[in-house]
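Q: What changes when phenylalanine is included in the input?
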Amino acid sequence: MQDKIKKIRIQSASEINLAENSKQLENFRIKYLGRRGEVTLLLKDLAKLSPKQRPQIGKLINDLKKEIDSSIKTRNEEIKLKSAEDGEGDWIDLTMPGVKLPEGHLHPTTAAIQEITEIFSKIGYTRERYPEVETDWYAFEGLNMPKDHPARDEWETFFFSPKIVLTPHTSSGQLREMEKGKLPIRMINISKCYRRQSDVSHTPMFYQFEGLHIDKNISIANLKGTIDYFIKEFFSGKREFRLRPFHFRFTEPSFEIDITCDICQGKGVLENGQKCRLCKEGWLELGGAGMVHPNVLKAGKIDPKKYSGFAFGWGVERVLMMKPGMNIDDIRMIYKNDLRFLEQF
Ligand code: PHE
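A: The predicted holo structure follows.
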């Protein structure tokens, strides 16, 4: 029996060392260690030995088993290493392009907010964010809208309590900015606003961006220049705008800004002679603007005799819809989370 063990040891060692691939090695493993392998059969023969001999021979067979097992593993490593060096088998081409992971993108509103922020930062405006839950003072009273004033009705407000509201416009940030006590002011407040409205051009939650510029000698000319710059940048040049007299309690004089409609090119009629469905008369309303009312400056502890300023507040989703080629005919689509819509951006 000992001779047999010796013979298998020598034979297996040389065979394994000469193996050239993992397939051959596997065959050797089966030949020696498989269920009917030579070493396995030796173990079965143990039973035929005397109880005295058994432990000694058994140990020899077990050692052989371990030896064969480990030399198969060693040889396997050698083969793998060699084939990698030769550029065969499992190799990696580091110059091959990788597998692309599915990639998302920004929501169109977020992208518009970033664009607006960037446009205004180029002319010195700092992006601010003011609270969504606001007190009556900042949302209304401090903006020259005393309690029970009918003008308040225009901001279809959500109330938490008589004094706490979900801010219905970003103008509530005007006084908060003035209270910082730093002049001049050039801020762009982009925040969520809430109103009890839902139709093709309104969502109960929307974003506004509010520009506020306060300094010495600020006039309507500065307001017009700023609007002109924004419209050229955001709508890529080809749109005209107009200031239409309006009334807000917190600006005097006040305007609404209209821009020419992209669908009918400001004509009000389409090429087929039909009235433009979107604007009807060639102009689209962008939002409000005006010169900051002296009472509001006073509420913000700024002397209206020394300083003046302008403000404008427009909807982010509104201006986004007016971009050339957007073709969004229902503002609510923007927040429906429908991937078929969102993936188009
Ligand atoms: N806050 C006004 C609105 O929500 C817009 C506005 C802002 C008007 C600033 C004038 C000045 O309609």
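Observations recorded in class: The beta strands are 126-128, 133-135, 158-161, 164-166, 185-194, 205-215, 241-248, 251-260, 283-292, 308-315.
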